[in-house]
Q: What sequence folds into this?
């Protein structure tokens, strides 16, 4: 089939059923829907399809199999590993028009959503019903549930609530072969062999399309209180974490470097937490449910100062103040985005974080002393975001080439520490060449065999995770 024939067939497919889907071919739409936040690979999709029903997605997959057309699933396009980028004439399947909350069961505390429901929409829905959807991150205003599940998105509350995977009660998927599967049927307990639901979570859309998800909701946390601490040394992040965790259930434990905070402050709107400068800052969040918890937190803070781990600190006195302190962490990514940084999203076992970070920092600084390294991330779960900013006077190509070298050093250290080359953003295209630093040859072979079972013609998101 030639491209015109494909487009006219897609239009026919979308016109069928009770609700008509859409096909877009305007250059601005191709550009917009063909990319994510990585902005590394120029988008070049053939067309964008916006289905309205699972049956239309199934029809699309059947058509794609018959005519060997590649399909790329696309959510809110906030991904950072090019997992939803269409750079090779693929047809993008976007879920913007499948954005309804379909059902809510208050006694089971579950909510059935179409894949295009935006994270914030789900969070607000939960709140309106006196409950809480705890998976949260800076892009919650645009990221969609289908994309979150496909990448098993984590975010800022993983230390207490886990990843997206932990909140899925059931999934409706269209496999790469074109079957519609209703996985787990929202059951709390179901030990009937392989849990296929969890194969689709984190598969980056390579096995099929998630079209609906039933998500669990939680009790709404009370009196969330934020403590920002200035730390003397990186190893103190672990000392502070251990001391607090013995007594208080933290809902978040994040960190950022002095350089990271500098960019947020320079961006405006956010104030420094205190005057004392520190090389690293930690942000702790907990439920101040009683005077006792607050007293414990203050005593722990004092102990940390006495031990020389903490230089200064501030604790929120109101919800607004807590939210303002969160801005120090949540705005880092956007404040450095205009500089198109080199990015890595790596993890190790929590206790190994200081040594791991220091080794990486030392190797980059030794070879490229003019690179500005920005560290931040979810240190409470061992996930570090390494961003490097291009020196103003360095050519883009030169920087890019040097960063490829940095990748090698970083991933060799990751491998030695038995860490992960992608803690939460996924493999997509950007981490594909480095998968073997985290996964063994045998594991990758099993992953490829699974792909073959669900998508024998390789039409769903080809070229992502592995070739
Ligand atoms: O921009 C990054 O490197 C990380 C983005 C996101 O995962 C975050 O934690 O803010
Ligand atoms: Zn993150």
A:
């Amino acid at each position: 089939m030639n491209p015109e024939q494909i487009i006219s067939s897609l239009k026919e497919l979308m016109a069928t059923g009770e609700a008509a889907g859409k096909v877009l071919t305007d250059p601005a739409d191709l550009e917009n829907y063909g990319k994510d936040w990585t902005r590394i690979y120029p988008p070049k999709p053939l067309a964008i399809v916006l289905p309205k029903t699972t049956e239309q997605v199934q029809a699309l997959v059947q058509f794609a199999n018959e005519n060997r057309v590649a399909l790329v699933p696309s959510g809110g396009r906030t991904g950072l590993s090019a997992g939803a980028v269409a750079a090779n004439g693929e047809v993008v399947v976007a879920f913007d028009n499948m954005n309804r909350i379909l059902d809510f069961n208050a006694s089971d505390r579950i909510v059935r959503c179409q894949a295009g429901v935006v994270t914030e929409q789900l969070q607000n829905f939960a709140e309106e019903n006196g409950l809480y959807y705890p998976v949260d991150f800076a892009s919650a205003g645009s990221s969609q549930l289908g994309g979150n599940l496909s990448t098993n998105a984590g975010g800022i509350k993983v230390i207490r609530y886990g990843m997206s995977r932990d909140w899925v009660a059931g999934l409706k998927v269209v496999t790469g072969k074109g079957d519609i599967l209703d996985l787990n049927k929202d059951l709390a307990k179901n030990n009937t062999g392989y849990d296929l639901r969890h194969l689709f979570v984190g598969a980056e859309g390579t096995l099929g399309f998630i079209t609906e998800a039933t998500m669990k909701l939680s009790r709404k946390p009370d009196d969330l209180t934020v403590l920002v601490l200035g730390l003397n040394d990186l190893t103190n992040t672990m000392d502070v974490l251990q001391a607090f965790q013995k007594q208080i259930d933290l809902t978040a434990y994040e960190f950022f470097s002095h350089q990271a905070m500098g960019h947020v402050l320079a961006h405006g709107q956010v104030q420094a937490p205190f005057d004392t400068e520190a090389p690293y800052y930690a942000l702790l969040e907990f439920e101040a449910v009683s005077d006792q918890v607050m007293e414990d937190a203050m005593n722990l803070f004092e102990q940390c100062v006495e031990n020389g781990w903490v230089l200064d600190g501030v604790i929120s006195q109101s919800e607004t103040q807590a939210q303002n302190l969160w801005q120090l962490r949540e705005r880092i990514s956007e404040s450095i985005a205009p500089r198109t940084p080199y990015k890595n999203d790596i993890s190790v076992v929590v206790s190994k974080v200081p040594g791991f970070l220091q080794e990486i920092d030392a190797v980059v600084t030794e070879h490229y002393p003019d690179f500005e390294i920005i560290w931040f991330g979810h240190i409470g779960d061992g996930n570090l975001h390494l961003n490097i900013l291009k020196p103003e006077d360095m050519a883009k190509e030169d920087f890019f080439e040097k960063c490829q070298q940095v990748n090698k050093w970083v991933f060799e250290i990751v491998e030695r520490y038995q860490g992960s080359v992608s803690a939460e953003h996924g493999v997509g295209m950007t981490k594909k060449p480095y998968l073997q630093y985290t996964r063994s040859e045998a594991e990758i072979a099993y992953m490829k065999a699974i792909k073959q079972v669900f998508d024998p013609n390789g039409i769903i998101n080809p070229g992502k995770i592995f070739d």
Observations:
- The first helix runs from residue 3 to 15.
- The mean pLDDT is 97.
- The pocket of (2R)-2-hydroxypentanedioic acid (ligand 1) is lined by residues 137-138, 333, 343, 385, 387 (CB under 6 Å).
